Amino acid sequence: MSATGATLAGPPPAGAGLASAPARGTTLTGTWALVRFILRRDRVRLVLWIVGITLLVLSTAASIEGLYPTQADLDKAAQTANDNAALIALNAPSYALDTLGGQAVFNVGSFGYVVMALMGMFLVGRHTRADEESERTELLRATVLGRNAPVTAVLVVAAGAFTVLGGLITLSMLSQDLPAAGSVLYGAAMGAFGLLFACVTAVTVQVTEHNRTALGFAGVVLAASYLLRAVGDVGDGTLSWASPMGWAQAARPYAGERWWTLLLLAAAAIVCVAVAFSLLGVRDLGGGLMPPRPGPPVASAALVGSPLGLPFRLQRAGVAAWTVGLGLAGVSYGSVGQDVHDLIGNNSAFEDIIAQGGGSLTDAFFRTALLMMALIAGGFAISSTLRLRSEETGGRAEPVLAAALGRTRWVTSYVAVALAGSLALMLAAGLGMGLTYGVAVGDVGGQVGSLVGAAVAFVPALWVLVGVTLVLFGFAPRATAAAWAALAACFVIGLFAELFDLPGWVVDLSPFQHVPAMPAQGFALGPVLALTAVAAGLIAAGVLGFRRRDAGY
Amino acid sequence: MTNAIEVSDLVKTFGRTRALDGLDLSVATGEVHGFLGPNGAGKSTTIRVLLGLLRADSGRAVMLDGDPWNDAVPLHRRLAYVPGEVNLWPNLTGGEVIDLIGRLRGGLDRRWRDELLQRFELDPTKKGRTYSKGNRQKVALVAALAADAELLILDEPTSGLDPLMGAVFQDTIRELTQGGRTVLLSSHILAEVEALCDRVSIIRLGRTVESGTLAEMRHLTRTSIAVETERPVDGLTSLPGVHHPHVDGTRARFDVDTARLDGVLKFVTDLGVRSLTSQPPTLEELFLRHYGDELAELEGRPSPDGSATDGPAANAGVGR
């Protein structure tokens, strides 16, 4: 087109660029360029994950010594925990709890592994299926880029990130003067577990066409490995060997290190990568393993009958999956309840706790288990509400709002699904728990009633999360991701308040702390009404905010 | 009130960006109004203000005698809209989306809907994610055209459609407007605007620069003429309204202001015409002239007379 300088610069002759590059392109061509690209896109995000998890581990490890200043304290704590099936089911198997290192690992517990896995899952999903779904991958794959390059690149980044994070975890432990071998092993086990779930996600993103669904599948694997080890650790430990989280915890840092269990994690990761590559070889870009099927040519009455039709249709699969998942979690916890029940008789160290809690140890266990499940259900409450934002930014809200549907009705229809879904989730959790525990103790009717009641008592707290998310959506739509920070804060308050010795007013910020402690204590109408009123106020404010602002940006 | 849309002095800012900067637009009831402008001129922003999706900072906007922001719901019952970029729900079929939008607007005529599906050769059983860009566009078009709306707001409705479907679209729009419907058509396909529109508004940088019927606007433009005469062409350059003359003995090529066409032609015929070809001004030239001027202004130099129509700047203007 243009002539520059003294000599005419024309287009290069066709094929000139190929002369130096032999026809040797592999399925991995372009991986390094993508690695740099991913690091560029995620430089802030990755640092936040790494710093956040390091701080979690460091602050937990640092708080142990203050909690148990003498060996006598440690011995007492160890004796308490060793027999406490509830704590073991929730946290981790009890190894060397009479040492500072053992206590630190126990207190970070399964929660630490779950967070590591989440980091790997989100990282891989974001750079594989999410890009493919939005057709960005198409742009890249049309260049000189091998078929396996995108997955390989993100796994290379994941491996690097988990190496750094594992190293920082080791340094955190070492900074508390904990033994070197255990510290290195703990960092390695945490990092390896995160990397394994990055690889698991590399498989699930090949199976479905949607990133959301792919992350859901990986989440099911994670939940299963958590529950298997919970049941296994409380029982004879056999089931724990069926769980990747069990393998990581079986490495036993500070308690007679067993390095070889890391090989199980590595082997599983390699199998996942091999499966991912072979699936990539047989599927189409943008497609999953199932061919798309034709759907109905006309809309059903349920879809168009009311404003609720669309949000329900969009989320019915998600609500169903969450409900089944929490129901299964309830079933697992309920089945462990029997073991907790049996332990009460021969455990003297627990009498204090029982006295403090004002109920039986089983009740205290169920209360904690329900809190865990309610916090997890908080993830549904927020993501379901954020559907409003993704509809808006995805340009799909525009044609709906350009029809004769007012903004209030549009917003409230999505909020209704989030509110009702939260209720369904907790009902399923309470029902699953009540059924299995009721069968075990021979009192199905009574246990179902009491545990469903206790589970549903958490629903107003979930509604408050919906309200918080909606206020962000109404007034600060670009900052809606802050809702996840709110949930993370609720997690930390709910699980680590005592350990970190958080001040009372901070603990009170979490709506979950105001839920009546059923079944140990009776139902209290006051807090439930107060939480519901706060939720209603927040939702009303969010709707008003959205009515006033520009839509679609 | 005879105007379906009446917008005056509309201002909308996004942070420091002034997307609309005193825009005026009036669309008479029953007309097809072309809405033209380069990318980023503010067409979609204007449409979103009219739909009550964005709130204008200042200025007046009246649509179907209502306020687009406050009366959004009742107004939307009377209008149908095709967005510039169509995003569908990945797991809903095209048929479901058409019914959903139709129902949200207050119902649609099923026979007319099925007729439109046939005309546009659209398979309603496919899921949103499996449609091509053109087919996604068709889903939005059928959803809008199937509605019994007084006002159609179409934001580049045929982008992604093949020429055959473009023709189907034009036929359908003509059919619909015979029933007295009003259409606001934002488009980059100038032939389509020329074929359909009664009046045209051209905007740039958030401001209206030209508005009127195509005939009025053609009046402002130039006709290109190439002529061969018996006697040498002398004195052409001094005639008013003649631009870019290239005279070579008995042959000449030049542009002439359409308003001065008569006088120039008389001069030429006096020389004895052997052959004459003329090219009428197209909307494209009109468009290029306005956008060319804009580029010249942006570069901070005065726009030399006529240079905008054939300079490199004007060529850059069509680059999409």
Could you tell me the radius of gyration of chain A in angstroms?
26 Å
By secondary-structure content and strand pairing, the structural class of chain A works out as mainly alpha
Which strands sit side by side, in order, in the main sheet of chain B? 5-6-7-3-8-9
Distance between the termini of chain A: 38 Å
Q: What's the end-to-end separation of chain B, in Å?
A: 38 Å
Proportion of helical residues of chain A: over 70%
Number of strands of chain B: 13
Order of helices and strands of chain B: EEEHEHEHHHEHEHEEHEEEHEHHH
The major beta sheet of chain A can be summarized as: none
Oligomer status: heterodimer
Q: Mind describing the biggest β-sheet of chain B?
A: 6 strands, mixed
Strand-and-helix sequence of chain A, N→C? HHHHHHHHHHHHHHHHHHHHHHH
List the helices and strands and how they pair.
The complex is a heterodimer of chains A (553) and B (320).
Chain A: H1 31-41, H2 43-67, H3 71-82, H4 85-90, H5 100-127, H6 129-133, H7 136-141, H8 149-175, H9 180-207, H10 211-234, H11 244-249, H12 261-282, H13 301-304, H14 309-344, H15 351-357, H16 361-393, H17 397-401, H18 407-441, H19 444-456, H20 459-475, H21 482-500, H22 504-508, H23 525-548
Helix pairs in contact in A: 1-2, 1-8, 2-5, 2-8, 5-8, 5-9, 5-10, 8-9, 9-10, 9-12, 10-14, 14-16, 14-18, 16-18, 16-20, 16-21, 18-19, 18-20, 18-23, 20-21, 20-23
Chain B: E1 3-14, E2 17-28, E3 32-36, H1 43-50, E4 58-63, H2 72-76, E5 79-82, H3 94-105, H4 110-119, H5 133-145, E6 151-155, H6 163-178, E7 182-186, H7 190-196, E8 199-204, E9 207-213, H8 214-219, E10 222-229, E11 242-248, E12 251-257, H9 261-270, E13 273-279, H10 283-298, H11 307-310, H12 312-318
Parallel strand pairs in B: 3-7, 3-8, 5-6, 6-7
Antiparallel strand pairs in B: 1-2, 1-4, 8-9, 10-12, 10-13, 11-12
Helix pairs in contact in B: 3-5, 10-12
